[in-house]
Amino acid sequence: MAQSGSPVVDQASYRNIWNLSWPQVVMMFFHFTIGFVDVWVAGQIDHTVQAAVGLVSQSLFFFLVIGMAMANGSVAAISQSIGAGLQKRALRFISMVLALGFLCGMIIWVAGRLFKWQFLSLLQVPETILPVTGYFLDVFLLLLPAYYLMVVTNAVFRAQKMVLIPLASTAIAAVVNAFTDFGFGLGWFGLPAFGYKGVAWATFASVSAATAFNIVMLFRHGLLRPSSFPQLRWMRRALPYLLKVALPTGGMQLLWHLGYMVLFAITASLPYDSVNALAGMTAGMRVESLLFLPAFAFNMTGSILVGNSLGAGRRDEALRIALRLIGIACGSMTVVGLIMWPFIDPLAAFLAPEPAVTRQAVTYLIYNILSVPFTVASMTLGGIMTGAGATIYTFAIYSSATWLVRLPVAYVLGHLVWQDAEGVYLAMLVSQIFQSSAMLYVLLRRDWYRFSMIKRNNSRNTPGALPPLEGAKTNVRPTV
Asked: CA nearest 466: which of 158, 242, 232, 246?
């Protein structure tokens, strides 16, 4: 925990941004290896398994929507509390979001099991891959409570600027996933080959191991203890702000990932070559994540630093952080995209060896590498708005970009004009241009600062401020 008497740090300094960003960039690389290994091993088994992995992986993000929303809400609340020097409040938020995260994971697991086949029907899963997709979904649903805890605990550590712990946790997940994928999926290391079932349980084992590590670290660093769990009166005061940040984020994540599932459904129902298009899109997304997963590191760095600065009441510093992060993120990732461009064909062929699937993956990558500056800018800006608590802007813009631009254009071009997957890929580029432009307008022209918890003694009449939550000020006996 940061100490209230510690010297003021220039949050906008390049050194401070770098110290927070590099562990998260490496962490995103481990995330990439997890998805890359899953898709590569699935491709070695059969292209239908590869298509199923793509569908269910995207579905998993849909089921994690509430967990991601709570994680974003906790980053805003905890980082702003630390910036304001309110350590007790930060500890109480940590206990509250962990309990809520586990409870939500259990509820969604039960709901997912009850409506499994209706869900697969909505995805328009082709009959040829329905049994494999159903098995993957069963295993992934069982994993949800642990996955929720992993998402929320990683957010808690990031908000504390303890970014090396999520890095170690993700490294553990990557190593366990690779070993079990190759071992139980393909039969390497003298282990029995279970095919696609081995790939499914590899994900279960890797996430469970990472979650267990995070829980141990929470106790070791004193961030989780019975005495810090807030009383009901405190929770009634704190929950509205958490929900004010989390609900728009949850709505945005829900509509965003639902939009991706609709995009997969549009692709799955294309007039020509739909299964190869699904497999190619799955493979292309894994290669593309080399570019866009690091952007999540800048997203998370922005939420931490902007939250700290606004919690301390330093608006000018928050804007400097935002502008510097956008420049660093877009510049560095564009250079990486240019370096990757000559290697699109061999990368696609490596991950999707069947020629028809390779062609689809190459076309997907061409359009999505062109969108790098726009995608990275909007992702970084999304983190900045999260740190400020201004997630309502992210909700409105991301949702509009998906449902008013991407999906209508994808359907028209994919089904009516070109009648193949290239129309879908072009729609993704168009929507990213719209999204990044709108987010930049908000940063420069709108009062997004007002959504933060203002550092004041009397904040009841301050827009966006949280009522006093320290024990003495709320007539709640301090427990930490």
From this structure: 242
In angstroms, the CA 409 to CA 430 distance is: 9
Q: What CA–CA distances, in Å, run from 373 to 32, 313, 330, 363, 412?
A: 19, 31, 5, 18, 25
Please provide the size of the chain in residues: 480
DSSP letter at 85? T
Distance separating alpha carbons of residues 171 and 53, to the nearest angstrom: 21
The answer to whether residues 71 and 154 touch, using CB atoms and an 8 Å cutoff, is yes
CB atoms within 10 A of CB 215: 15
Which residue type, as a one-letter code, is found at position 313?
G
Q: Tell me the three state secondary structure of residue 273.
A: coil
Q: CA 307 to CA 327: how far, in whole Å?
A: 19
> Cα–Cα distance between 309 and 375 in angstroms, integer?
25
Amino acid in the structure at residue 448: W
Q: Are 27 and 297 in contact (CB under 8 A)?
A: yes
**CA-to-CA distance for 326 and 381, rounded, in angstroms?**
7
Higher-confidence residue of 44 and 476: namely 44
CB-based contact 59:136 (threshold 8 Å): no
Choose among 194, 354, 186, 197: nearest CA to 279.
Answer: 354
Nearest Cα to Cα of residue 2 among 87, 98, 119: 87
Say how far apart CA 23 and CA 320 lie, in whole Å.
22
Q: What is the pTM of this model?
A: 0.73
Crossing angle (nearest 10°) for helices 372-388 and 65-83: 60
Q: What is the per-residue pLDDT across 465-475, written as a single tens digit (0 to 9) for each? A: 444 444 334 33
Do residues 372 and 340 lie in contact, with contact meaning Cβ atoms separated by under 8 Å?
Answer: no
Q: Do residues 195 and 45 lie in contact, with contact meaning Cβ atoms separated by under 8 Å?
A: yes
Say if CB 456 and CB 465 are below 8 A apart: yes
CA dihedral (422, 426, 429, 431) positive or negative: negative
* CB-neighbour burial class of residue 415 (10 A; exposed 0-12, middle 13-18, buried 19+): middle
User: Angle at CA 433, nearest 5°, toward 19 and 389?
Assistant: 50
Tens digit of each residue's pLDDT (9 = 90 or more) over 225-256: 777 777 788 888 878 888 888 888 778 877 88
